[in-house]
Specification:
By secondary structure, this protein is mainly α. The protein has a domain at 7-228 and 335-377. It has helices at 7-42, 46-56, 60-77, 79-88, 90-109, 116-146, 165-168, 171-195, 199-228, 261-265, 271-288, 292-314, 338-365, 372-377; strands at residues 150-152, 158-160, 231-235, 252-256, 317-319, 329-330. The strands form three sheets. Strands 1-2 form a two-stranded antiparallel sheet. It has a two-stranded antiparallel sheet with strand order 3-4. A two-stranded antiparallel ribbon has the order 5-6. The longest helix is centred in the N-terminal third of the chain and has 36 residues, at 7-42. It starts with 6 loop residues before the first helix and ends in a 6-residue tail after the last helix.
C-alpha cells in the first residue's frame, strides 16, 4: 500500500499532536485541578464552596477526556514511550489515578449528607484530587528532562531499573512539580474570576497575582538550573529520520546545557519561553483591569509556553535514558509503523474537529457566572 505522506513527516505530525493533547489537557483540565486546589482558600462557608465547585462540576468530565486521549495517543503512536513511562512511573501514576478518582466521588457525595464534617472531608478530597495530580505531572516532566533509568535489551524489551516513587522526588523533579502546581492553580484562579461572583471571585483575583508571579519565578529558576546544572542529550551518530523504530541503532551523549541547543539553532523556538513568562504577567494585568476573559486566554498561552519550552528543547528526544543513553527514545526511532501513523492521522482529522465543536457548544450553553443566589435556589440540583 502506497502511503502519500512521508514517514518522517508523519512522525513529526504525531509529535506535534502529542504536544497538542498534553497542552489541551493542561489548559482544559488544568483549571479544574486549579479550582480544586484553591477550594480551601477561596471559599469560607458552604455557599461559597458550592459556588466554586459548581464552576467546574458540569465540565470536568469532558475536560478529563484530554488526558485519556493523550494516553491513547502515546500508546498508539509511540508504544515504547508508553511502555517506559507507564512502567517507570507506575507508582506515581497510580497515585494520580487514586486522587483523580476522588474528584467524581467528591462531587457526587459531598452534598448527599448535610453534615459539616462529611462535607469538609470531601472538600479536602477534592483538594487532593487537584493538588496531587498537578504536582505529579510536573515531577514526571522534571524526571524526563533529567533522564529516566531504563534500558532496552537485545529483544527490544524496555527494562526499568529505578527504585520507585521517592526516586522521582528529587530536587529538580520537585521544582518542576511546583512550577506545574503554581501554573495550574493560577489558571484555576483565573477561571474563578470568569465563572464565580462575590467573595469567591475577589479572593481568586488575589491568587491570580500570587500564582502568576510564583509561576514566572519558578520557571526562570528551572531554566537556569537546566542551563548550568542539568545534562541534556544529543545524538552523536547519523540521524535517520525515516528508518526503522529501533532506538539501539544510534549513539547518544550526555552534554551539560544541551537542552538549550535547539534554541540557538532555531531562533523561533524562543517564542515558547517568552510566552511562558509574558503569559502570566499579562494575566495579572488583565485580571487587575477586569478583563477576565482575556486573562484566561493569556493564562492558557502561558501554559502553552511552559509545556512547549520543554517539548522543543528536548526535540527529537521523547524519553532519554540516563543509565543507557543509546536506548533513549526519540521521535525518529520510537514510533509505530508508517501505515499506523497514517491511519491514525486520518481518524484524528475526522474526529478532532467534532470533539472541539462539541466542547465549544457545551461551554457556550454553560456560559455565565455561578452565583450564590443560584446555589441557594437550587440546593438539591447542583453540586
Amino acid at each position: 500500500m502506497s502511503i502519500p505522506v512521508d514517514y518522517e513527516i508523519l512522525r513529526v505530525i504525531w509529535w506535534l499532536f502529542l504536544g497538542v493533547l498534553l497542552i489541551g489537557f493542561a489548559i482544559m483540565d488544568g483549571f479544574d485541578l486549579g479550582v480544586a486546589t484553591l477550594l480551601p482558600f477561596v471559599a469560607r462557608n458552604e455557599t461559597e464552596r458550592r459556588v466554586a465547585i459548581n464552576t467546574i462540576g458540569p465540565v470536568w468530565e469532558g475536560n478529563q477526556v484530554w488526558l485519556i486521549t493523550g494516553g491513547g495517543a502515546i500508546f498508539a503512536a509511540f508504544p515504547p514511550v508508553y511502555a517506559a513511562s507507564f512502567s517507570g512511573f507506575y507508582i506515581a501514576m497510580f497515585l494520580v489515578l487514586a486522587t483523580l478518582i476522588l474528584r467524581p466521588v467528591g462531587f457526587e457525595f459531598r452534598n448527599k449528607i448535610k453534615d459539616a464534617r462529611w462535607r469538609t472531608f470531601w472538600d479536602y478530597a477534592l483538594f487532593a484530587g487537584g493538588f496531587v495530580p498537578s504536582l505529579v505531572f510536573g515531577v514526571a516532566f522534571g524526571n524526563i528532562l533529567q533522564g529516566v533509568p531504563f534500558r532496552i535489551d537485545s529483544d527490544m524489551r524496555v527494562l526499568y531499573e529505578g527504585s520507585g516513587l521517592f526516586e522521582l522526588l528529587n530536587p529538580f523533579g520537585i521544582l518542576c512539580g511546583l512550577v506545574s502546581v503554581a501554573m495550574l492553580t493560577t489558571h484555576g484562579a483565573v477561571y474563578l474570576t470568569v465563572k464565580a461572583e462575590g467573595p469567591v471571585k475577589e479572593r481568586a483575583k488575589a491568587y491570580v497575582r500570587i500564582g502568576a508571579l510564583v509561576t514566572v519565578g519558578l520557571f526562570i529558576i528551572a531554566g537556569i538550573w537546566t542551563a548550568f546544572a542539568l545534562k541534556g542529550y544529543a545524538i552523536t551518530s547519523a540521524i535517520v529520520t525515516d528508518g526503522p523504530s529501533n532506538p539501539l541503532l544510534k549513539t547518544v551523549a550526555q552534554v551539560r546545557g544541551q537542552w538549550f541547543a535547539n534554541f540557538g539553532i532555531h531562533k523561533w523556538m524562543m517564542l515558547a519561553p517568552a510566552l511562558a513568562i509574558l503569559g502570566p504577567l499579562l494575566t495579572i494585568a488583565l485580571t487587575a483591569g477586569k478583563r477576565a476573559g482575556l486573562a484566561f486566554i493569556t493564562s492558557a498561552l502561558g501554559i502553552f509556553g511552559v509545556i512547549s519550552t520543554a517539548g522543543v528543547s528536548m526535540f527529537p528526544f521523547l524519553m532519554p535514558s540516563d543509565i543507557m543513553p543509546q536506548a533513549s527514545l526519540t521521535v525518529w526511532d520510537a514510533s509505530s509503523s508508517q501505515l499506523t501513523l497514517f491511519v491514525m492521522l486520518i481518524a484524528t482529522l475526522i474526529f478532532l474537529p467534532i470533539v472541539l465543536t462539541y466542547t465549544g457548544f457545551v461551554f457556550r450553553v454553560l456560559r455565565g457566572p455561578v452565583t450564590a443566589k443560584q446555589i441557594d435556589s437550587n440546593s438539591s440540583n447542583l453540586y
